[in-house]
Amino acid sequence: MRPAFAVGLVFAGCCSNVIFLELLARKHPGCGNIVTFAQFLFIAVEGFLFEADLGRKRPAIPIRYYAVMVTMFFTVSVVNNYALNLNIAMPLHMIFRSGSLIANMILGIIILKKRYSIFKYTSIALVSVGIFICTFMSAKQVTSQSSSSENDGFQAFLRWLLGIGALTFALLMSARMGIFQETLYKQFGKHSKEALFYNHALPLPGFIFLASDIYDHAVLFNKSELYQVPFIGVTVPIMWFYLLMNVITQYVCIRGVFILTTECASLTVTLVVTLRKFVSLIFSILYFQNPFTLWHWLGTLFVFVGTLMYTEVWNNLGTTKSQLQKEDKKD
């Protein structure tokens, strides 16, 4: 029951979270900082009340380790959200972030001295080719859209290149953070909920440096059109409603993934998250009518097939099937 409930939370929370993020970014592309701050504040307050027991519970992992992890986590979150302000369309944003396997493998080889099978190298090659196709076609779209306005066309393309650089940096930093977490959990044991709280609470002072941008967007949100919230009947500026729903759905998404990691094998978690990304991508293309060519579909197919190959889902399904057949024979 709990795994099914967790899968429901992941799909409902994560997919709807992407929708509200795109609604926010389409109206105000530079709103990434206020979105990140709101998400961090909400999860930090919830964790302070229920996980840290109002600060009375001592952390199982020393704070100095969390300080390193938090620096990486804060940087990844801010950079990923800010990339939407650099001519990065939401579908490309999602596809690019799906390339985390590449970054994990590269850093795993360099830092942990890991070695992989030819099958895994092939899967990573597919993911790499898929991301390259989508990125290249998006670059052509930016160039063609910018050609109509020669004055700022080159600047728009440079902003897009900066956005790609930001996503690449965030991808590698996220992979490095994953390796750091892996080493910490081996040393101190798994404390995912505690890590979730400290990863969101400790970076809050860092938002002081982003205070002016957050304030400016709060003023812009106040000026947005009024919206009557269904069932409640309260009227609020629609951008604040989108932000509130984004924060709530982000929490539901994270909680769902947390339950899933404690109840299911890592293979199951990877498959659920990958399928969720694919559903979010399809919805973003259809509902928001984002430009998506046949080449984009081909690149997307490469990314998701490569991801499934990396998890060796077919081998695991075959193993499960043979085990079931053996059990049937015994009966």
From TrEMBL:
Record family assignment: Belongs to the nucleotide-sugar transporter family. SLC35B subfamily.
Subcellular location: Endomembrane system
Keywords, alphabetical: Membrane, Sugar transport, Transmembrane, Transmembrane helix, Transport
Membrane topology: Multi-pass membrane protein
UniProt cross-references to InterPro entries, sorted A to Z: SCL35B1-4/HUT1
Source organism per UniProt: Felis catus (Cat)
Pfam family, one: UAA
Main location: membrane
Protein name, UniProt field: Solute carrier family 35 member B4
